[in-house]
Specification:
With 475 residues, the protein is of the alpha/beta class. 55% of the residues lie in helices and 10% in strands. The chain is built from 17 helices and ten strands. The protein has helices spanning 2-12, 23-53, 61-81, 91-117, 124-151, 167-174, 192-199, 212-224, 235-241, 263-299, 346-354, 361-366, 380-389, 406-410, 417-429, 433-447, 462-471, and strands at residues 155-161, 180-187, 204-207, 229-231, 244-246, 253-255, 304-310, 316-322, 371-373, 402-404. The chain has a four-stranded parallel sheet, sandwiched between helices. Helix 2 (23-53) packs across helix 3 and helix 4 (91-117) packs antiparallel against helix 5.
Length: 475
């Protein structure tokens, strides 16, 4: 084994990137550049405009305080939205995250300045500042993304798969050709020795959905050779990695309580639901009126659409949504909602793209049928169909269904049910108040992201086709 590892090291010398050891430093420099630019722009706008027109101008430390507050807010939202993830997220996603962070922070800062002066100030300067920020962000993202691509080229990976097909996984990884390239694929049935002999020619191994014994043996072999691995987790892996570590014996133990939320967590979560749903309905009241009028003027049909869904412990409830399709859209039976589906109302396209069609679910939250954060509610008949292939799918019902959630944030509209289950289990097992707050803050980011609302295409599996059909609104 040692000789094989040495051969691999020699064979990989040309593939190893000299700059890999400096990756963190380069990312830090990249982040420092854009933050310095954005804070510097605010300093100019504050010091040479707003501070000169407010009734009681700030001096020295007061000016530094305003800039520090802006920098803290900016760092917080950039960290939350992923604005620093050059090389990890797609270039467009990084630009979007940066601009969204600036819009949010600049809006908060405008309100802060208005409150300090006890009157609304001219907002043209803030708009101009945001425009300059956006220009700097685009130039920065293109520049550093180009540098990153030159210093850290795509990794050539070997995919090792088992009996289950790996086409879905290959499609996902191939969508990031800037980072990864699956340049080889082997069935584990050829034997571990043959797999490891081939692996020495790659920068890493993707371990697909393999049987536990083969997967563990392959992981150990890769570890002993210092070969990078990317492993597809099983449900049992999710349960293990979200367990508590006990060190009260000389042998480590992993404690999995499996008892759901504690009493105090349920009280806090319900209180947050009532508060957030109440505020959300109050703020969105004008949108309710405008959307209702738009739907009525389109075809005179009902404004709301109701459908039976599942929530905690398998209880059913009627979910509320704005209607986005024509009346009796599925007279000919359940059909998938396509990209240019003629059944979707003109206003429905906008509502679906922005997910504003889900605003009425705030009523479900107030009624206690849903939570602000939790697994997406499924139809009973669809859940029963999925459970035939994935019996563990009902694990999602340990908590209330949610308006937003872990799977909604980190998954996509067409995420497979199995992957969706793993994401939801991660939330259930790692639940905290901070996680709920984080997911709610992240929700505005995904509302306008095209990749988060991907629809049905010809490559979807049969199981995904069923799920997509059920998730379209008019059933």
């Amino acid at each position: 084994m040692r000789r094989k590892c040495e051969k691999r090291e020699k064979g990989m010398d040309s593939m190893n990137n000299y700059y890999e050891q400096y990756k963190r430093i380069i990312k830090f420099i990249s982040s420092s550049v854009i933050v310095s630019l954005e804070v510097g722009i605010y300093w100019i706008v504050w010091n040479y405009y707003y501070n000169m027109i407010i009734e009681f101008p700030f001096f020295r430390r007061g000016n530094w305080l305003m800039v520090c507050l802006y920098a803290i807010l900016l760092l917080f939202f950039l960290k939350m939205y992923g604005g620093f993830k050059i090389g990890l997220l797609k270039k467009g996603n990084v630009i979007y995250s940066q601009i969204l962070s600036c819009i949010v922070v600049n809006g908060i800062t405008y309100l802060q300045i208005s409150l300090l002066d006890k009157k609304f100030q001219d907002f043209i300067a803030i708009i101009a500042m945001t425009a300059v920020d956006s220009l700097c962000i685009v130039v920065w993202a293109w520049g550093f993304n180009w540098i990153y691509g030159r210093l850290f080229p795509q990794r050539k990976l070997l995919l090792v798969y088992g009996k289950r097909p790996a086409f879905n996984l290959m499609e996902k990884i191939n969508s990031r050709e800037d980072k990864y390239l699956i340049s080889g694929a082997l069935d584990i049935s050829i034997g571990l020795e043959a797999v490891m002999a081939a692996a020495k020619n790659y920068a890493g191994v993707i371990i697909g959905d393999l049987p536990a014994h083969e997967r563990n043996a392959l992981m150990k072999q890769c570890f002993s050779c210092g070969l990078r691995t990317y492993t597809v987790p099983k449900i049992s892996d999710i349960l293990l990695r979200t367990s508590d570590e006990l060190n009260i014996f000389d042998s480590p133990l992993l404690l999995s309580r499996n008892e759901g939320m504690h009493f105090e967590q349920r009280i806090v979560k319900r209180s947050m639901d009532i508060l957030c749903a109440g505020i959300g309905l109050l703020i969105s009241a004008p949108f309710f009126v405008l959307i209702a009028i738009s739907i009525k003027l389109t075809d005179r049909g009902p404004v709301f659409y109701k459908q039976t869904r599942l929530t905690k412990w398998g209880k059913t409830f009627e979910i509320y949504k704005f209607r986005t399709m024509i009346q009796n859209a599925e007279t000919m039976g359940a059909q998938l909602a396509c990209k240019h589906d003629p059944r979707i109302l003109p206003v429905g396209k906008l509502l679906r793209a922005t997910r504003l069609d889900e605003l009425p679910q705030l009523i479900n939250v107030l009624k206690g049928e849903m939570s602000m954060v939790g697994p997406r509610p499924e139809r009973p008949e669809l859940a029963a169909e999925i459970e035939k292939d994935i019996p563990e799918f009902n694990y999602r019902l340990m908590v209330k269904a949610g308006l937003t959630g872990y799977a909604q944030i980190y998954g996509k509209y067409n995420t497979t049910s199995y992957d969706k289950l793993k994401l939801d289990l991660t939330y259930i097992r790692k639940y905290s108040v901070w996680m709920d707050l984080k997911l709610m803050i992240l929700t505005p980011k995904i509302m306008f992201m095209k990749e988060s609302t991907e629809g049905v295409n010809g490559k979807n599996s049969q199981e995904e086709g069923i799920r997509q059909a059920a998730m379209s609104e008019e059933r």
